[in-house]
Amino acid sequence: MNIRRLVTLETVGAAMVTVLVLVAIFAPMLAPHDPTIVVAPTFGDPGAPTLAFPMGTDELGRDVLSRIIFGARISLTVGVAAMAVTMTIGIAIGLCSGFFGGAVDFILMRFTDLMLSLPPLLLAMALVAVLGPSLRTIFIVIGLVSWTSIARVVRAETLAMSRRDFVVGAEALGAPSLRLIARHIIPNVLPIIVVMAALRTSDTLLLDAALSFLGLGVPPPTPSWGRMIEEATIYFRTAPWLATFPGLAIFYAVLSFNLLGYGFLRRRSQ
Amino acid sequence: MRRRIMPVVIALAIAFAFGCGGGPPPLNLPPHAMVIRLADVDDVPTLDPAAGYDTVSWTFEQAIFDTLVRYGDGNIELEPDIATAWESSPDATSFTFHLRTDARFSDGRSVTSEDFRYGIERVLNPATRSRGMEYYRGIVGAADFAAHRNPHVSGIDTPDNSTIVFHLSAPDPIFAHKLAMPFASAIPRDVAEKWGDDFSRHVVGSGAFMLRDWIGGQRLVLVRNPYYFAKPLPHLDAIVESVGVNQELQWLRFDAGQIDAMVDIPPAEFPYVMKTPALRKLTLAKTTVTTRYLGMNCQMWPFTDVRVRRALSYAIDRHKLIAILNGRAIAARGVMPPNLPGYDPDLEGYDYDPAKARALLEQAHLAGGFEFEIWMRADQTILMLAQSIQQDLAPLGIRARLKPVAWGPFLEAIRQPHTVQSYMQGWEADFPDPENFLGALLSRAQWGSNNDSFYSDPEVEQLLADAQPVADLKKRYALYDQAEKIVVADAPWVILYYPVTYIIRQPWVHDYVMNPMRPTRFEHVWLSPRPE
Amino acid sequence: MLAYLVRRIVFGAAVLVGTSVITFTVAFVVPADPAVAMAGAKADPQTLASIRSEMGLDQPLYVQYARYFDRAIHGDLGRSYIRRESVTRLIADRFPATAVLAGAAMALSLMLGIAMGALAAAYRGRAADNILLVISLALVSIPVFWLGTMLLIAVAATIRSFPLGGYSGATSLILPTLTLALGSAGYYSRVLHTSLCDAFDQDYVRTARGKGLSRMRVMLKHAMANALLPLVTLAGLDLAGLLSGVVLTETVFNWPGIGRLAAEAIFNLDIPVIMGTVLFSALLIVVVNLLVDLLYAWLDPRIRLAETG
């Protein structure tokens, strides 16, 4: 087994993602304490990292390590769910646009342009502020503001596919559109979709963290990494570890999906 | 290749040019001027007395404008400001004020009774969208004026330049206090009408200070008003407030002697300040006339049952909340906070007693617990406090779901009778009278307005109605006290705490006095020479 | 060329109108009462009612939109509910701070990104390439607000009297610029790397290499010019985004820019300001898009010919 061939971007990424998923699934067993109850003697003030609490405790006396472990659940759930929403919308629009062309393409692409002119973070903030933050609202909103790049990419691939001889021929023979899409277009578009799914997840994770940081994430006491950073900012001088660890967690998660997606991308273009 | 490099280089050059030239323009104050330097996180919302309704706006409004009466530096007794004397009719429907003749605006013009009339009419005019409208609606003719049926408020008389009379449509013994609010400042009509909605940026008042410049998002500078009537005040030559400075940075600047006073010590530094004798000496504390509570909707399950409400009152540990606030609060017992006249120090509230809570829940057949929502403004501190409440209720099987929302939707939601089960709220006194708490927050008439727990009790209603027109303070407070006791027993709120504000000032700042109901005034403040 | 320009301008205007309709609808269909935002917490229903009728808030939606549209065309974007200031003025006050940060961040991220991308391409396949790749991916994965906070922590702990937030001259620009630029630099370096590698596979480059020129030299002289084009488009769009304010960086550093204004407005449901900032952002994107397309056409004669042909 050649180590160098094994350690590629996508394998490292896949390993990191797997660890993340396992942590999320086995959180109750891995976390030393309940993330929502008071465990530290220093209620009202953050506590420094000690042997008992390796990542310290926060203002409400909760163990930071346990909160980070449980935070993986929320982050993964939102990240993956939002990615699913985004992919669904983006793929649908991209496929229709690329395949049907003409007026459909025009309208859908103009609509995409319109969406592109709205700043995504602000739009997400506005929607969450109005609809009220909850798990479902958040991943739907994130999904709604992130689909434009998928739509474009899928459209480009679909266009390329649609022009291929065998598709044109099948169409001429009267094959129904849906069948054509399902049998010919989708399988060929699939690779790029997989890549984009991974890359999108890292983006949705970042967007979710940003929303939590701005106070629009999943409401407490569910631990959310972004919100943990927000709660830690006033202590940045006196208790800097409070902000450091959640950030590292986000970085880890985002990096893992980026490695995965980018690895596949490079593999595909070789 | 050169073609590509150039744009980048140019962009860089521009950026650096901007960056170096950026920041606020120089202050240009005389070298030995006595200048107090302050800082704040956010920009001053407004300087327009009709619009401002927050601590920061009022801080500067009361420096720039004068009212008929005002509170003493450190107390809530009414003192003369522009009015030298005043009297009211025995039935408290008519108030007459006699003005001094030597008060002048910063542009030199004399202050007359007409300026006060204009100020109040401006507040009552819906076009101004003033937040103080409701306080002056009791004046005769206010409604007609607001509906544009009358160019003036008929109930305000200005028989001569130095007399003004207010006629009220119902007795209001505390009306004079409403004239101590910045809403009732003297406003020069010509300046206000010239600038319209932009008056805030071009304010002219008769107070001790005047506006010199205001760079949005950067700084606000006030200088002394040469025409101020109470010479030789103010001692200060200028007040400079830098904005956009976050709390930690403010603290560092204070530590380095670059700021003279901090109105809000950051929670991260507070324990250190209190433990260091040298710093502790420099702090001042005041109990604000504020009560913070968890309101429960008496019309919605499970809070229709008084036993459940009382159970929650026993189940929540107020001392944990105070710990989160670094000790900057007093555990609450009654509806009214300590500095409010009429406060009952002997009132028995609820202690932290989970056993009693459990017993009450059993009586209410909810021993297994239940789930409910707590709505609140999306504020970090409030969220922290709410999480502590969650922690307290969890062992009783009660699951509290937190719902932080924006201010606007929050207010709207809590005013609906069947939307919000419970909410985190606070109320700060507008004027020093129990009516401002019990009447404004717990009477039937305020359903859909400020009585968001939709509480109503016939005995309380009767007591409130009886007490409101009573001018004899002892009798008045006794009646309100009775009402308060009933309310506390009925527990429409879990009354949490009364916040305490701490400020810290440099050793060279003198006569910086805290007032329970108002921000600190600057007229008497003076600075000894700063150490170099 | 002229026809192209006109078409783009018309289209841009259409996008602006479309954006305003969408934002307006969302803002006013939203269940939030503007009168409450204006009148404040303690206002009683009577006050609210009179404010509502005074502001014309009880008019049907399309009437309100028409009035808004009419005023907007003349540069009046209304007044903030919370601050009473004119929205145009609020945005104008904050634009210089935003522009300075945007310019500095764009400059830095381009410099870093181009350098990293070019280096990685020059040493393609070797260790340096892989290291730079990982660095770029890492940079792209760092949450902006965390990076900013970490920088604040590091500086606060080591350098005294360094401005920690707020806009007060050149030094205060350093941290926010660094925060913004690092992530983009990572991204740009990847984009450049890809286009450079594509360019390397082109015939004319192969020829140059065949002539014995070093990779670096080849790259700089021949490949770079073409490879920079896609980057220009990307950077242009990003610049538009930067100019409309960067909420996260501005929040961490208390930077008095448009991003914070917009975020604050969203929290307070201060609708005129929300609409104003969104429209402003859309305007920037449309204008910058147009400029970038023109720049592209100017730089790459092939496109120009294709359009007019």
In short:
The complex is a heterotrimer of chains A (270), B (532) and C (309). Chain A is mainly α.
Q: What is the overall shape of chain A?
A: elongated
Sheet with the most strands, sense and barrel status of chain A: none
Helix content of chain B: 25-40%
The amount of helix of chain A comes to: over 70%
Mean pLDDT of chain B: 90
* Helix segment tally of chain A: 12
Rounded to an integer in angstroms, the radius of gyration calculated over CA atoms of chain B is: 26 Å
Order of SSEs of chain A, N→C?
A: HHHHHHHHHHHH
- Pairing-aware structural class of the strands and helices of chain A? mainly alpha
- Uncertain segments of chain A are none
Average pLDDT for all residues of chain A = 87
Oligomer: heterotrimer
Strand segment tally of chain B: 20
How big is the Rg of chain A?
A: 22 Å
Q: How many beta-strand runs of chain A?
A: 0
**Would you tell me the structural class of the helices and strands of chain B?**
alpha+beta
Q: Which segments of chain B are poorly predicted (pLDDT under 50) over 5 or more consecutive residues? A: none
Biggest sheet character of chain B: 8 strands, mixed
Distance between the termini of chain A: 22 Å
Would you kindly provide a written description of the structure presented here, covering whatever features stand out?
The complex is a heterotrimer of chains A (270), B (532) and C (309). Chain A has 270 residues and is mostly helical. Chain A has twelve helices and no strands. Chain B contains 17 helices and 20 strands. By secondary structure, chain B is α+β, with helices and mostly antiparallel strands. In chain B, strands 11, 12, 13, 14, 15, 16, 17 and 18 form an eight-stranded mixed sheet that branches. In chain B, strands 1-10-9-8 form a four-stranded mixed sheet, with no helix packed on it. In chain B, strands 4-5-7-6 form a four-stranded antiparallel sheet, with helices on one face. With 309 residues, chain C is mainly α. Chain C contains 14 helices and no strands. Chain C is flat, with a radius of gyration of 24 Å.
Give the topology:
The complex is a heterotrimer of chains A (270), B (532) and C (309).
Chain A lengths: L2 H4 L2 H17 L1 H4 L33 H37 L1 H15 L3 H12 L3 H11 L2 H15 L2 H8 L4 H37 L11 H8 L8 H29 L1
Chain B lengths: L1 H20 L13 E6 L14 H10 L4 E3 L6 E3 L2 E6 L5 E6 L13 H12 L17 H5 L9 E5 L2 E5 L7 H4 L10 H7 L13 E7 L3 E6 L13 E6 L3 H9 L5 E2 L7 H6 L1 H4 L2 E5 L2 E7 L9 H10 L2 H7 L4 E3 L22 H10 L7 E7 L2 H14 L5 E7 L1 H8 L7 E7 L9 H5 L15 H10 L5 H18 L2 E13 L3 E2 L15 E2 L5
Parallel strand pairs in B: 1-10, 15-16, 15-17
Antiparallel strand pairs in B: 2-3, 4-5, 5-7, 6-7, 8-9, 9-10, 11-18, 12-18, 13-17, 13-18, 14-18, 19-20
Helix pairs in contact in B: 10-12, 16-17
Chain C lengths: L1 H28 L4 H6 L5 H10 L6 H13 L13 H36 L4 H15 L2 H15 L11 H31 L2 H8 L4 H29 L3 H7 L4 H11 L2 H29 L1 H8 L1
